[in-house]
Amino acid sequence: MTGSMAWAGRRAVVDTARREGKASIRLYWVPLGAGGHSVRLNGRVFEAASAIHERRHRRDLYHSALEVLTPGGRFVIEVAPVPREAARYGVVSQGAVGSRRLQGFRWMRYGLRCWRDGVIPDRAEAVKGPRELDRDARRAELLLALVPSVPMHVWGRDETGAGEMWTSNSVISWLLTSSGFRTELLDPPAGGRAPGWRAGIVAARDSTVQGACASKSMSAASEAPSPLISR
Fold first, then answer.
1. Nearest in space to 192 (alpha carbons), one of 66, 43, 13
2. pTM (two decimals)
């Protein structure tokens, strides 16, 4: 399928969803660096060092992203380097990479995107395609409303006390946990791992807004809730 045909197909799905009031929250597991040689190489070096330090076999690394479909539109939620035209790509928050002292440089910041009609650059590389987590419109709207509240900890540092560094995966797991999902059940593909996933879960559970978020998400549960939803 060509890019234009795929885009036309996605637009048709969105238009139908808007007419029928449908919603969906989809999780993507993309191999780290699927679309870039340098990121892939750095990831392999990092994983090799981690495996030696932890005395285990090397594992594939994954980057997570969300696609949220609501009656009001389709949104891509993902963390990526901050582009020059940040607003154009739906960047709603920015955080420092490595050290807050260097965040004055754009290339030392990461951006959280909530991009209407956006794209996941390496979507085609996602293992087993998207995993649909829920179809409840209220939960989808809740997740979108939580995006501006994500804590933008320093990337590469353990500021949550989780025992692992904060990464793009931390942002996604924070959002899902705060929306009422049993995020600990959402493992990456077999044989892989998602650095930072636990850090986001810990930060969400320790958050002062977690109680209110959980209450809202519970009331938004569908009549036939997914086993991934906290009860």
1. 43
2. 0.77
Q: What are phi and psi of 145, to 5 degrees?
A: -65, -25
Provide the residue range defining the domain that includes 74: 16-219
Residue 141: alpha-carbon gap to chain centroid: 16
Helix H or strand E segment including 175: helix 168-178
- From the list 170, 173, 167, 123, the residue with the least C-alpha distance to 143 is 173
Position of tokens 């090397």?
58
Tens digits of residue pLDDT in 154-207: 998 999 899 999 999 999 999 999 999 999 899 888 888 899 999 999 999 987
Does the residue 229 lie in any domain?
A: no
Contact 35, 29 (CB under 8 A): no
What pairs with residue 74 in β-bridges? 69
Q: pLDDT tens digits for 95-127?
A: 999 998 888 888 889 999 999 999 998 888 888
The percent helix, strand, coil of the chain (3-state, each to 5) is 40, 25, 35
Kindly tell me the number of DSSP H helices and DSSP E strands found in the chain.
6, 7
Domain assignment present for 2: no
- Residue 41 maps to a domain: yes
56, part of any domain:
yes
Question: Residue 54 corresponds to which amino acid?
Answer: E
